[in-house]
Protein: Cytochrome c7
Amino acid sequence: MSDLSYFGRTVKHLVICSLTACLFFLPLHHAFADAQKGKQLFQQNCAQCHNPLRDATGPALYGKENEVPGGRKWIYNWVHNSAAVIASGDKYAVNLFNQWNHVQMPPFPQLSTQDIDDILDYVKQVGDEAKQAASAPAATAGQAGGGAAPASNNNLLYGIITLVLAVVALILLQVNNSLNRMANEKEGIETPEPVPFYRNKTYIAIVSLVLFLVAGYFLTNAAVNIGRQQNYEPTQPIFYSHRVHAGINQINCLYCHAGAEKSQHAMIPSQNICMNCHMAINSYSGPQLYTPEGKPVDGTAEIQKLYYYAGWDPKQRKYVNAGHPIQWVKIHNLPDFVYFSHEQHVAVGKIQCQICHGPIQNMDVVYQYSDLSMGWCVNCHRTTKVNFADNAYYSNIFMKYHEELKEGKIDSVTEAMLGGTECQRCHY
Structure:
């Protein structure tokens, strides 16, 4: 065998190694913890109850990774199903449950371990930046917005490596073909003319298969999301800030949405509910408000809009006409074939508003936080434990589960056990 043939086989091995490396590095830059993605995941799943640096509805998250037993593995189990960790008798979990007044963290089985890693890295990044700012304010002031740079640089680095290796693999492939042709010519072996890549059946089949898979992926996702309105954020006739009312001023949700605990619908409050406060409050002096596009909002002018709709004259301090109904734009729209009762969830299930509506107390403009898909609802029914033993609603029904709880055969009851995953529960 000639040296050229031997060298050609060596190049072929290099091509295989390079292609293997491409396949390895291509997903690698996604696999590494991405704090930017973690920020998005944190805002979508955690922000309604947690703050990285201070206690809120739940405990501050910064530093918890080093505090919990078992590190991230324990956190994975806790995030996926905190109730199971508590039921296992884990001392730290039980103490945490008791410390926070028996408020149980909802399960998030949809989050992968990589998603949780991203969230933890984002929390660590925020905490580390806060520490640096506290120790050297002047030195770090100009870096306040650059905390996510390392994660972005890593992604860019792995992307560049992937492209470089792909180019190297193509070059080595061409070199290998040329060396094989030279070796065959030297040994007097006739070399057939190479088939152009656009006529090569193998290449055509591979490209067709890739295009088919990519098109199928996007078409399936598009079909699944038909009719869903997650992140829907319409402009309302009056700029009403839940952050100001429910967050800063701590107005209970049920004061305005009185139907949430006693009827199917939460109800949009009438102008009279608003005027209970705004007969006296005719100007806004809180933090500057902004639209989602970043335009400043005049809070006092928005109150004047309310007066117009209510028919109220702030100078005479009385109603001067019948007013007009406010044409609020509905945000959360379930299909007509779905039955949903706020009373059943709020009054019986003791579900917090934020579980479905997200961090509503932080929203200036309300948007649809959850996708409200059937899978999302069914998953909640499968994993959420019902306040069963001490709930008057269940006192005289499902006696089998009452007995099993007393006998210690089961430690909790989920909505799925009560028929919450049956079709007719929501579709009838």
User: Anything to note?
Assistant: The domain at 1-194 is CATH 1.10.760.10 (Cytochrome Bc1 Complex; Chain D, domain 2).
